[in-house]
User: Fold these one by one.
Assistant:
Number 1:
Amino acid sequence: MTADTFTDSTTFLISKGAAEISHPGGTLLQHLQRVAAQLNAWGAAEEVRLAGLCHATYGTDGFDRRLLDLADRATLVELIGPRAEALVYLYASCDRTATYPALRFADRFTGRPVDPSDAELRAFVLITAANEIDVVRHNPDIRARHGAALHAFFTRNRDLLPPVAWETVKETFAVRIASLDHLVLTVADISRTIDFYRDALGMEPVTFGDGRHALTFGSSKINLHAAGHAIRPHALRPVPGSADLCLITSSSLDQVAAHLAAAGVPVEEGPVPRTGALGPITSLYIRDPDHNLIEIATYD
């Protein structure tokens, strides 16, 4: 097949009225072209991209508007090839109510069970991802009603998606947490805690709100609550000494160890190899005045 196959397929879709059928984001033809473009961006095989372009030819369980009668499947086979057409039929015939919970296929046209190959399963989930991503990008109501269920479906079947597609799924459907802004420590003595974190770890004390206290470092901060006077809402059991924190330093651990020794803070353990959020780290462990465990680490 060549680029002419995609051109001929587009011409075929136009001849069947796809450019005049309304669809989220414009027309059905525009939607189909965006699905094919998304599959191309993910590096999908040619037959998968062709199936994505033509996936609505026989209608779908979510958009039951046929462009071609099932009795005329040979027409699509001749146009895009048997493997791509088989994927179009698999997508069109999928009974979503039966299939989505456990990826067990039932043909909604015949009522018979279907046993797709591993390659067909991967293509089906990939085309489904490209289709649903385009739909919700152009229809916030559908995202609001079905976004959580779609995210759950793709999460259950993430092993069938290439990593690049999974990342797009997460960007589209999942809540994305960018970073930690602040955390709260419940402490026995706020003044003693401020002195420790300022002198031993170089944090900057700040006062905010109605006389509240915090310690800032980098782009984050630690808010301090006095034991017995936690500010609502708060953790279920806000008690001193229950925290275990890992802090990344831009100083060498030799420099950190020397500074801690000068400040009279014993190193409980380290340096030892550990694993951080982004990869291997080397860590020292100390205790703050409330005996919270504080890990100070550098990335290797």
Number 2:
Amino acid sequence: MRSDGRTSDQLRTLSIDPSPNRYAEGSALIRMGFTHVLATVSLEEKVPPFLKDQGRGWVTAEYGMLPRSTHERSPREAARGKQSGRTQEIQRLIGRSLRSVVNFEKMGVRTATIDCDVIQADGGTRCASIGGAFVALALAFSNLKKVGVIAESPLVDYLAAVSVGIVDGEPCLDLCYTEDSAADVDMNVVMTGKGELVEVQGTAEHRSFSRKEMDRLLDLAWKGISEIVDLQKRLVQI
């Protein structure tokens, strides 16, 4: 049993509330334990200059943590005048991950910007952002289809992410902050609904790890991602 009473292969309490924002074309509030992230999608009828005259769309993402999403207030990055390297790395991960399951030709000449705002953080914010952002994006495309702007959803598969790691010698699923900060090995895994890998970010924090341990972590990640995808399927159809 872990500090919060879970078994090693158990997700934190998971919920996704669809459409909490009345103004965004698509939105979702995801809760993974005490990590809560609001994802909103904004659609614009234009694309970046590098896609001019190609007849296709684009998906991009931005990520941020609210000042009191952690134990102490963190100044807004806008007030500091620049984004941290961590923020840039995470929003690029979110954008890359979502683009892996989008058919841009079916999307049309438009850009979907996904804003992921961390309301409360207790580890795994990038993974929660991806799972919530997928639902928000699916809702945005569904709304376009309903009004006849697109013929079918550009999404080709479901998408979710989860953290795994080795804590006190034990492979564990969906690390909370106290586990993440003490883990011997820390890994974030992004996968499609079919079980294909999109991205793996694995780091030996305090010791190296074997191929056998890595395979065990990937198996744990797939178990957790399957459960997240099952919830997504109950909320949105692609």
Number 3:
Amino acid sequence: MAGSRNKLLIPGIEQYLDSIKYEIAEEFGVQLGSNTASRSNGSVGGEITKRLVKHAQSELAGSQNQES
């Protein structure tokens, strides 16, 4: 992530995101790269976001259930 000003809060997250990116691309039949339509590349990014949000929601629900 050269040049990025974003600070990563979770060590090793870049490797995780790379692995899930290629896993999703394979599921969608998308060949990632500069020659791929931006819509196809974007569909992979959108799916990553959906899965991360779903995971966070289930984590939050689990922690709220433990507090009850």
Number 4:
Amino acid sequence: MTGPSDILGFWFGPDLAPWQVERWFRPDPGFDAACRDRFGDLLAPARDGALDAWAATPEGALALLLVLDQFPRNLHRGTAAAFASDPHARAVARRAVLRERHDLTLPCTARCFLYLPFEHSEEAADQDLSVALFEGLRDDPAHAAPGGSIAYAWAHRAVIRRFGRFPHRNVALGRATTPAEADYLAQPGAGF
């Protein structure tokens, strides 16, 4: 049976390899297919809570959050299903980070994936938490650099403060786009 170590090995490579932005955050049909082929059958059980026991350890919580928060974005890119497990991901992340403090036992790059469910939220309080957590990585040059994860946390929060939601999700979620959102989306680099 597939377990946390399989997911972490696939996502990070050996020894939680350094930041791999191109692989993780840029659309890549080949990588999406690899996620689907290897781990697509874990999404429904994870969303339904069947894998919650994984969250008892830092590595298990990290793997579960990859399944709940990252894999849906790869497997269901551009559809509402990409966000269907976000509420469960936030609940797992809240427990792992705020109660268990699993994040403090992981390398900075891995910590980011415990924090991303808050960055992906359309709730202002989650965005504030995201920024606070990512700011805790300030001593790591890879995250503090311009265009690093800290800058992305601030950018996500700015969009939520401005619009109360992520306009780039409107089409997938069947929401009408306001004129102000349309102007924003027309700008180079808008959306995430």
